[in-house]
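stage 2 :: seqdesign
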């Protein structure tokens, strides 16, 4: 959870700054820090001290409550998290021409093993029974449309969507489209 919060702070800082059309240089001058430091915070390369973070928030004309409000939803959103196609967050990992990173999901879990698989579902394929696993499950829809039922909730996911949930919750899936579907599956044990 700590890594989640760190990533959200950088994203929130950048989002608030760009919404207000404040440049890195303007914010740096207002807060009395360097542009490089702000860039590192926004790109999750460093963690600001509380004093620097509070100063940056104040320099954006925000109060602490409004700054952290959106982030609060991320942590109270139950046992299922869906990232819709297009909601991925671009970030710069390395300055290489032609490389474009988008963060789909960052979630801290206690895991000792990882299993990564490709699941292909033929048109009409469905699991009838509800199952449980001893893993956190991350499913990224590569093509097609699938329906996941987790406990009593049903979610329709399309190519580009990502689903993350605790596999101990009873679940099942079916191909909800008119074509074959493919899912990148990551189990965190």
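stage 2 :: out
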């Amino acid at each position: 959870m700590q890594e989640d919060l760190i990533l959200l702070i950088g994203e929130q800082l950048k989002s608030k700054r760009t919404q207000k059309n404040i440049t890195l240089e303007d914010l740096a001058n207002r807060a009395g820090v360097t542009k490089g430091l702000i860039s590192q915070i926004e790109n999750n390369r460093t963690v600001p001290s509380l004093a620097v973070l509070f100063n940056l928030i104040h320099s954006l004309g925000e109060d602490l409550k409004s700054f952290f409000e959106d982030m609060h939803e991320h942590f109270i959103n139950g046992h299922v998290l869906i990232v819709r196609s297009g909601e991925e967050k671009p970030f710069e990992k390395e300055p290489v021409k032609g490389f474009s990173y988008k963060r789909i999901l960052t979630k801290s879990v206690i895991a000792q093993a990882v299993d990564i698989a490709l699941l292909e579902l033929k048109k009409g394929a469905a699991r009838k029974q509800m199952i449980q696993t001893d893993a956190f499950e991350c499913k990224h829809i590569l093509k097609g449309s699938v329906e996941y039922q987790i406990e009593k909730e049903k979610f329709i996911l399309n190519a580009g969507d990502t689903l993350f949930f605790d596999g101990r919750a009873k679940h099942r899936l079916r191909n909800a489209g008119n074509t074959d579907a493919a899912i990148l599956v990551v189990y965190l044990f």
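stage 3 :: structure notes
- The longest strand covers residues 114-121.
- The mean pLDDT is 82.
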